[in-house]
Amino acid sequence: MAETLRYRDDEPVDHPAVTVDSFLDQSNATAVRIEPGDDARDLIPHLERLALVEVNFPAFGDGRGYSSARVLREAGYEGELRAVGDVLVDYLAYMRRCGFDAFEPDQQFDRDDVEAAFERWPEVYQAAADERTPIWAKRHA
Fold first, then answer.
1. pLDDT digit string (tens) for 27-39?
2. How many domains is the chain built from?
3. Residue 1: its pLDDT value, please?
4. What residues are paired with 122 via a beta bridge?
5. What is the CATH number of the domain that holds 110?
6. Which residues of 6-42 are buried (b: 16+ CB within 10 A; e: fewer)?
7. Which domain holds residue 26?
8. Which of the chain's ends, N or C, has fewer CB atoms near its CB within 10 Å?
9. Average pLDDT for residues 70-88, to the nearest whole number?
10. What is the tally of helices (H) and strands (E) in the chain?
11. Averaged over 7-11, what is the pLDDT?
């Protein structure tokens, strides 16, 4: 496992995440891990007690985790949202747009590549969870 990249100011969660089913069966868990096939909407009634949601990407081509992130952010989740697994540096900017603010990739990233990924597209075309202003709104403001 590579170094975790966090883009948050709060303290990291210091305990492991449990599965969605385990989380729903207990009242003291504050960290959960969403696997492909889990429905992130099951967590919406419990957002206030969640400090960390890990979203597993077992293969970079499996995009279900993007939807999970967006669902949680649009429902008001403000805690740490961490992409774990087969996370590629080329997708970091897209993951940030969906609401991820931490990354725990299988392979270590080069810091220069990470910065380049985030700086590559200074403008965006649609609204997303990161609240960046789309270029069309800037043009017509």
1. 899 999 999 999 9
2. 1
3. 64
4. none
5. 3.40.50
6. eeeeeeebeeebbebeebeeeeebebbbbbeebebee
7. 5-139
8. C
9. 96
10. 5, 6
11. 94
pTM of the full structure: 0.89
Where are the alpha helices (H) located in the chain, listed in sequence order?
20-24, 64-74, 92-98, 111-119, 135-139
Q: How far is CA 57 from CA 3, 26, 28, 122, 137, in A?
A: 16, 25, 26, 26, 33
| Distance between CA atoms of residues 105 and 127, nearest Å | 26
- Binned at pLDDT 50, 70 and 90, residue 51 comes out as very high
Q: Is 76 left (phi over 0), alpha (psi -120 to 50) or beta?
A: left
Question: Cα(7)–Cα(38) distance, rounded to whole angstroms?
Answer: 25
Contact 56, 33 (CB under 8 A): yes
